[in-house]
Amino acid sequence: xxxxxxxxxxxxxxxxxxVNGLEYGTVQIVVHDGRIVQIERTERKRFESDSASQRxxxxxxxxxxxx
Length: 67
Description:
Blueprint: H1 9-19, E1 25-32, E2 35-43, H2 50-56
Antiparallel strand pairs: 1-2
């Protein structure tokens, strides 16, 4: 028979802290014998490729030199 999960206020705060500010990634909660024993946070950072970021940059004015 499975044990009911016991989540107290401390673990609730820890879970919320792990999720807070996470833009891309995962939060895994590890449970043993009906108790949370570990929280794992994997954060991902996404960056645009150089060609994609160049399209979003404002065009720079080129100054022509006159002789």
